[in-house]
Amino acid sequence: xxxxxxxxxxxAVCAVPVVGLVAAAxxxxxxxxxxxPGMTANVLGxxxxxxxITISGAPTRETSGQLRMTTIEATSPDTRVWLGDVIDAWWxxxxxxxxxxxxxxxxxxxxxxxxxxxxxxxxxxxxATDAALAHLGLDDKNIKVDLELADVGGPSAGLLxxxxxxxxxxxxxxxxDLTGGRTVAGTGTIDADGTVGAVGGVALKTRAxxxxxxxxxxxxxxxCADATSERPEGLRLIPVKTLKDAIQSLTALEKGTxxxxxx
Length: 263
Prior knowledge:
The chain is of the alpha/beta class. Helices cover 38% and strands 21% of the residues.
């Protein structure tokens, strides 16, 4: 049919669906979430007056420095995100546009998603405890670890929980702190065998860490490129694949010996 129309007529006909798509994008909510740097919390300290990590059944040690888990804040699953919001966030370095399904992979309503995130957090805490005690060669039947962190869900604090447990029980193994007195931040899931897994929003989490005083950031090795894309000045990025990697790197950094990898 288009071959019988003039060039101008053909372009006009072709433009109709394009205009329709643009109109739909402008006036219909898009399947995205807009994220920004969220809160951080020192797992060696307290949250709302309650210690984040409480250990019974084994002697613990006083620690210095901080181990800060990091988060992102995203528009809620029932928030409508429009084309203008996406365009605005696209050009900003303190925000990111993420597919809604990547931020909220399970559930259609806020409460359902909250339950999912809470379950993931509990699983992460259990795995973090198992990984830390296994690394130290301690019997988890004799030692009880309670982890409390309000209003945070998901599994991405696993690595920092494990490091906090190790620091409270053994430190660097020779009387020092894993942090070396620094403010160390990071992110990463963890399995019971100590494997560190990737998470989302790493570039935003580095900004949250820098904002809250961190000078070192532990990042899952697979996400080095994302972390370095907009790395805040003065923040050192250390890639890790396992809990053992993280402990060795922090110990080397604290003692000033050995090689510390970098993204």
